[in-house]
């Protein structure tokens, strides 16, 4: 793979590199690691890459790699830049014939995501989106149990994602804070675009339901900010189930506390990212069950995403790696027609199968994510309580424009 | 004290009796324990009361007791009936010269609560309301720390109260379910009236803030029910702080999971009723603190509401007892002018003082509680997002009327 | 009941009074609350007792009460003094015709406990011992499940009881520390006598097994102390099961962290006093179960010791009260021949039956407890690893005697 | 690196490969993955290795690699075979000029470990041992705080390591169970050799103390086993501190529950492998602190072993990787003289320094580990309570020999 962004000083690039290579199925062979050409090259060399493949810009990388032979050139491009660059890079990468794995949110707005879908369909290439939290084995276990009907009809979904890292003015000095709070680089939302979209994705992924209506209350809690840093959203799903979603970057003391609860007719399920190897299942009339990774029977897809036996905790990097590794199987599937024929080559993963491979978030998740962001912002700006969830671009007023008004 | 309601087969009556007498400051001397006269008398006898004071109706009790001498007759009446009887009993009790302790919600609607306030003011008697959860020592510790400014300005309040005991149709058979789901006995709300009001009270009690605006989404999740069994409310407080309140009786597997989180500028605080002896305090840049009852310095009011040293868990009954015991000191304060003079008589409680005594929820809490219920239901029926919190009775459409439409 | 000890300034007396009266089955009618006659009388008056029954010494109380009529005099004596007084008071109380409830450990040494047994048998009266922790409903639930065979044959028992309140020299200033560290008042052990004996009792109570052999390592961690303040004991039980017991008063930061784990062939069970309403049950090949008080079916004895529904935590005082209330039924059983006939009189407890009543720790527990203390101290003084558990008084060298050597 | 053992069907080999390569500092270039030559080659090919470097035996690998040029041949050998092969492989590897990283326990007995030390000293090469649990960042944080004196003088160490995977006869069918229970392959202990040694290492590592005396009680809980599957050890440390160590493979329902508690004069510390990103610190007179990875200031060595920000849990594989990555810096240090000069090349790790690099367990840990195993078994066979901890090989009777007697 080749990487765009993630040079020295960036945080998420290093995470992506560890995740992509963790299962020994993907190799970083080139990169354009920074918008600063010198830093881009220096970053690549620090990663032990061939100097000729430490590119000075993503355009250069995509053009040069396309000229290399099949056995040499990268198979896929990983995009780990600020949001506003996701679309142009993905577009050019696909057009040059490379599969794409993108950090989320997929694009800077919904219109771009819809355009991206067209390009993907035209090129016939693969596209993956790192909704990392769906990569956790026990998230997959929760999904499997719901799919099997262990909860009965779902009544209510409660998802929350509090963080505290932007609680105060002086938290804005980091590089990561700077672009996230800048509408030009981040899009129309900070909190909902950065983490609310993870929460919405997790809720839909685990339940298999789709949001159809919402009521939103976004807020900006520090003077001078142009984008939201906190929000609560009431939800209605296509099955009639209801839900609530809370996300915050100003909840002081909270680390990265994504938590999901799903209540059905006969049981409920709870999962928390801070202790990701446990699912708690509760019933009306019998003891709750602590379902621990590797203890008792696990779903086939869960197993395909685990590396260690019970009691040896896997974490965030492994969840991340699951998305990459399954995506690598998608690519190999293309290359070798039948993945089953190459089973012998993958001894380090417990198992893998079509269902696990197809579990990687793709362009549909990307579009729903961008639609979520736009619908939430639009709903928040409305005085009417309920807002229909639409897959069409929304009309939105930017905060600084409001301030002028 | 004398009790109205709480006869054989009732749950909450026994709880009140234990709580009231736990600190040896209050004695049950009479009662009208049931609307069924025979059951009323039998229940009283089973409690070892004098037969002559096992009354057949509350009217009889109030009249007869009023005729007894000062040294003999009860000082206060405890009301543990279904909601619709709270007001008439409290009214008659006050008019007959008795202090009143009432189960919550105070009345069946806001108009009654306002009328009750007038009667209290006219009679000059004492009125208490068993918002039990504010009786927990560590809730008081959280309040004290917020009051001292340990959190800085409050930004956000998140309170949730999920239960699962009314999740399904067949859960409606119990006596307790029956009247709570009957608008004639319960008022215009089931879930919000029964537990949402606790959550709102807890949020206002701990933070010292007042709700000024709300957006509500109530729902009824089982066919045939006339009242809400679940709801989410977005909140605005008088300081500008925001909040969310969730209450549910259909969240299967949840026991009685009242939980409060308050986020300030410099710290946040978390308390959960299922593990009531701990407050978790979190900060941006240093380790979280597990503040445990009795470990380290506790606020004076916290101490006045504890009986055991660290590591000897107190529970729900002790929280309940705190409200009764402090109320008994209010009464004694009236009787003996200066409570401090009688300190020697109260060796079983660590300490007590005016601040702790005045901490008992009274008619103001009662009115805000009834206003909360009416405003939430009105807000839920509105298509407009935000609804101002008003202390005036609200215009509300009952669900069964809607169904006819 | 009448109380000996527990006057103003004492901690445990107030706990006993709340516990004894919590279920409205026992009434405190008299007392000799202090070895200081003036304090004894003042303490009684502060508890609203008749002045004539606020006695100046236990001898006076026992003699005077014995002269009162059947309908007036106390039924039972509660002993809450330092250890060395337990035996003489219990002896005189029994000889004067009163049932006895004693704080633990039962006596100051094993010889006294054996003598006490003779007196009890001669008088035919009832004797109870407040091994409080066995009063917790979920401890009883654990016992019931083991008895039912849900764990299979027991392999291993791990019990630990760390406290930190005597960690340092300056912790010795309290009244409670002073007598516990004084061999004349406390007996031959501080840590094992005060809390180790609770741990041993809990292990035997829950498993139904008996200790037959032990290896002990007691230590004294603060200069100048004559008795142990920490210890670990390896155990063998009559079934062949093994175990470990740890108790400590110098484990800084620990509150009162009694915890029991029992491992069988097919399942294991875990209970912790700091969160007493949960039993965790684990299996080899299926999810662990969080068994919560009131959720799902509970054993009949468990139910007989609960007052609140699921999610309304009961605590230490309720566990304590269970011992008193069941003991009161034992007494009433004597008085009325058949307890079932008086069921109607006990509406405030869920249920009660012979099995629950007989669950109160008595003289056999008392003897095993004193034997545990003596055997542990003897084993600790031995250079040989294993020491047989004997019900005969042990030969022990006191630390200060050793120092002379 | 080259690997010995860890072929298809083995568990720990895959773990080592992920760990070694996670930080992109080490590359697997060859291997002799199985004692079955065909499986060895097939396993290597499945890992995408050059066919010429998929060796048929470790002897072949060591000889052939030694013949390759400096820029091509492996730098280090990783040994992941059953215990009895550790020594001969390490010996030959060192003699052929390769650094060695070995799975634990280092050798099959103490004599071998002592011999290994001589070889290491003679060759001047590097030797590392994967005591994985010391690789956790929060274990290092606990160690740092103790070193800084935050606990005062240490009084007591409590370490426990219960597992349940060998609880019953039918658990013996797995490959991993088979060799661990075979004295010829495993050495003189199963439970203590496999996990007790981790617990002892953790206790010494975190506290900086050394065991000087012990009293042991090992047992075998399933008929037909020749080695221990459970044990408790009482400890004395060189500072006079005391301790207990429990390890078990028959505690049904336990996963891999390594837990350490250290009690000092002024504070205590607690860490649990199942939730490895938290250290709990307790005090006598102020709230406990939940020290979470990445929240607040961390020690420099802790930071050097973290990859993710607060709230993004790292797990077992990352702890494992820390040992490998720091070891790779040791090697590089040798190659480039001054590691600081190559800082620019290591952008993916937060930082690294001499202290962190020297934190890798080496031959001294290996010798103490083997001595622990032998001393524990010898102590367990003694009828005398206390056994001095010695670094000389112990005289031990094997269980099957006992059976013959």
Automatic annotation (TrEMBL), chains A, B, C, D:
Residues 2-129 form the Gfo/Idh/MocA-like oxidoreductase N-terminal domain. The keyword Membrane does not apply. GO terms for molecular function: nucleotide binding. InterPro entries: Gfo/Idh/MocA-like_OxRdtase_N, Gfo/Idh/MocA_oxidoreduct, GFO_IDH_MocA-like_dom, NAD(P)-bd_dom_sf. Pfam families: GFO_IDH_MocA (PF01408), GFO_IDH_MocA_C3 (PF22725). The keyword Cytoplasm does not apply. Keywords: Signal. Residues 140-270 form the GFO/IDH/MocA-like oxidoreductase domain. Gene3D superfamilies: Dihydrodipicolinate Reductase, domain 2, NAD(P)-binding Rossmann-like Domain. This is Oxidoreductase. It comes from Cognaticolwellia beringensis. The lineage of its organism: Bacteria, Pseudomonadati, Pseudomonadota, Gammaproteobacteria, Alteromonadales.
């Amino acid at each position: 793979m080749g990487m765009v962004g993630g040079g020295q000083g960036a945080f998420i690039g290093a995470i992506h590199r560890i995740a992509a290579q963790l299962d020994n199925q993907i190799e970083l062979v080139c990169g354009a690691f920074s918008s600063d050409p010198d830093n881009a090259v220096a970053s690549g060399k620090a990663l032990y890459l061939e100097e000729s493949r430490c590119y000075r810009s993503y355009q250069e990388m995509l053009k040069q790699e396309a000229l290399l032979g099949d056995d040499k050139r990268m198979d896929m491009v990983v995009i780990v830049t600020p949001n506003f660059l996701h679309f142009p890079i993905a577009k050019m990468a696909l057009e040059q014939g490379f599969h794409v794995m993108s950090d989320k949110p997929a694009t800077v707005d919904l219109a771009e995501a819809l355009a991206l879908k067209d390009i993907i369909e035209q090129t016939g290439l693969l596209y993956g989106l790192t909704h990392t939290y769906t990569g956790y084995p026990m998230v997959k276990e929760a999904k499997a149990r719901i799919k099997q009907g262990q909860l009965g009809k779902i009544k209510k979904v409660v998802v929350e994602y509090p963080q505290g890292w932007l609680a105060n003015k002086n938290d804005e000095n980091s590089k990561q804070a700077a672009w996230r709070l800048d509408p030009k680089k981040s899009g129309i939302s900070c909190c909902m675009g950065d983490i609310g979209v993870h929460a919405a994705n997790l809720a839909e992924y685990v339940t298999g339901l789709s949001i159809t209506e919402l009521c939103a209350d976004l807020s900006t809690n520090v003077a001078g900010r142009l984008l939201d840093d906190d929000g609560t959203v009431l939800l209605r799903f296509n099955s009639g189930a209801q839900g609530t979603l809370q996300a915050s970057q100003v909840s002081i003391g909270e680390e990265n506390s994504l938590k999901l609860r799903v209540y059905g007719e006969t049981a409920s399920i709870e999962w928390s990212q801070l202790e990701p190897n446990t699912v708690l299942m509760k019933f009306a009339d019998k003891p709750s069950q602590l379902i621990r990774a590797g203890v008792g029977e696990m779903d086939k897809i869960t197993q395909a995403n685990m590396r260690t036996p019970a009691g040896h905790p896997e974490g965030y990097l492994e969840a991340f790696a699951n998305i990459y590794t399954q995506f690598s199987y998608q690519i190999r599937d293309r290359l070798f027609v039948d993945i089953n024929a190459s089973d012998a080559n993958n001894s380090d993963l417990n198992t893998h199968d079509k269902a696990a491979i197809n579990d990687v978030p793709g362009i549909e998740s990307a579009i729903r994510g961008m639609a979520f962001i736009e619908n939430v912002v639009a709903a928040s700006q409305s005085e009417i309580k309920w807002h229909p969830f639409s897959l069409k671009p929304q009309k939105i007023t930017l905060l600084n424009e409001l301030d002028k008004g």
